[in-house]
Amino acid sequence: LDTPAYKGTVSINTGLFINGQWLKSVEPEKLECCPDMVYTATGRIITSVEGGCSKDIDIAVDVAEKAYKTSWGLKVPGSTRGQMLLNLANLIEKNADEFAALEALNCGKPFSKAQREIAGCIEEFKYYAGWADKIHGKTIETTENKMAYTRHEPYGVVAAIIPWNVAMTMLSWKLAPALAAGNTIILKPSELTPLSALKFASLVNEAGIPPGVINIVNGTGSAVGEAMAYHPRIRKLAFTGSTLTGRKIQEASAKSNLKAITLELGGKSPNIIFDDANLEQTIKWASLGIFANMGQACCAGSRIFVQEGIYDEFIKGFAATAHHLQQNTGDPFSGKTLHGPQISSVQFDRIMGYINSGKTDGAHVLSGGERDGNEGYFIKPTIFTEVKPSMKIAQEEIFGPVGVVMKFKTEEEVIEMANNTTYGLACGIFTENVSRAIRVAHALDAGTAWINTYFTIETMVPFGGYKQSGTGREQGEYALENYTQVKAVHINI
Ligand code: NAD
């Protein structure tokens, strides 16, 4: 590539990474196993990669099981596992710009934003490298001649299924804690964005990770994802994606081996702006909240509730940020681009469908509301006002650059409106009144509350959803609970 943002090569192996080797699918004749990769800024195909099928998952489970029993888990000291995670962090760092270029190519996000994502991913591996030798149970004194202790044991073979919007972030959020806790893993990237995961796989052997500990099997949800969800010897599955797919995964687990499931699902997060908020800061955060990553964020602040006293000033400034992004929309590699294309033609059509439904339902288009240009999947940053809570655009996750603004009068009223959703991932609260900020944060059904900020994600702070936004927590010490099971050992002295 010779672009203003990135000059250099990108190289990946397009196979399935199983047992430290690059393999072809054992059922290559299946059409759905070979997805084409599209550069979303132009809609043109850039490469094709191997996609797996259920028999490939059987092979991956066999090797991951063997690796768990012989060369990982409690067979090696935690400090050794930690060192290997550090090696991975260092190798990603060494190749950081190539990773960012692959993300920009595969997902269409501006190169500079992809660079920031890779930096977070490196942090993640470093953080859990530190945990690998600090996972332990407790001693519990019961009576004079009895005692018990607990062990935090790994599951063995775990699986991870991730989405396309922040592919490397999701990869690191799953792999780093699972490996630190001593599990071996099979990870399926989204069939839309496997390129960075394939690059990552090419570093695994160099990091000294024994064969079979990390297996990366690309493929579709129906060919590979389902096989993982139903597999009787996978003990634990961590999933990030839509609520619809999360439901299917729970069903598959219920019908197979009742594997432990962690779900990080969709959202329709409220962002609440009170009259006394710092207007300039609030506009900046609200804009980031809905338009970051082209609105393709699970915790996007997509329902923006604005108190009546600040409403006019807020929407004026908010619309200006949308126009600014629109003026800086374009090629992810231009070096100046702030807003890129959507992930695929399917998502593009879906988002345009929501925009049209907002118009038909009578909401007012304050900015955007249409495609941008004729090539690729660009949509103008869109803001709807005069939105009623019952409208489809106010209820459903759009997963695109579409914010809906609603006016409110009182704190009680906005809490009720904000909680009127099946989701509960995150919320934003903007006010200079600290008591109100905390009161509202506690009253909202959300796994994360941001006060006078938005999208602050920290490696050491848990992240996850209430209600139909998921179960379980990623990040921080909490994520280790996802990947360990507690055994109680009783002793009669
Ligand atoms: P998706 O549910 O369509 O796909 C996610 C993954 O599941 C992909 O790898 C896909 O191949 C796989 N899959 C699809 N059907 C499957 C099946 N039947 N069995 C097993 N696996 C299957 O979601 P997406 O479109 O890739 O991502 C967007 C969604 O992800 C949004 O709803 C977003 O909110 C959510 N998301 C949530 C978080 C979070 O942390 N809560 C983070 C990022 C994205």
From TrEMBL:
Q: Per the record's keyword annotation, is Oxidoreductase included, yes or no?
A: yes
Gene Ontology terms describing biological process: acetate biosynthetic process
A GO MF annotation of the entry reads:
aldehyde dehydrogenase [NAD(P)+] activity
What are the Aldehyde dehydrogenase domain coordinates in residue numbering? Answer: 37-489
Keyword terms = Oxidoreductase
Q: Which Gene3D superfamilies match?
A: Aldehyde Dehydrogenase, Chain A, domain 1, Aldehyde Dehydrogenase, Chain A, domain 2
What positions does UniProt annotate as the active site of this protein?
Answer: E264
Name the SUPFAM superfamilies for this protein.
ALDH-like
The answer to whether UniProt assigns keyword Oxidoreductase to this entry is yes
Instruction: Give the protein family.
Output: Belongs to the aldehyde dehydrogenase family.
Q: What is this protein called?
A: Aldehyde dehydrogenase
Q: Which organism is it from?
A: Dendrothele bispora (strain CBS 962.96)
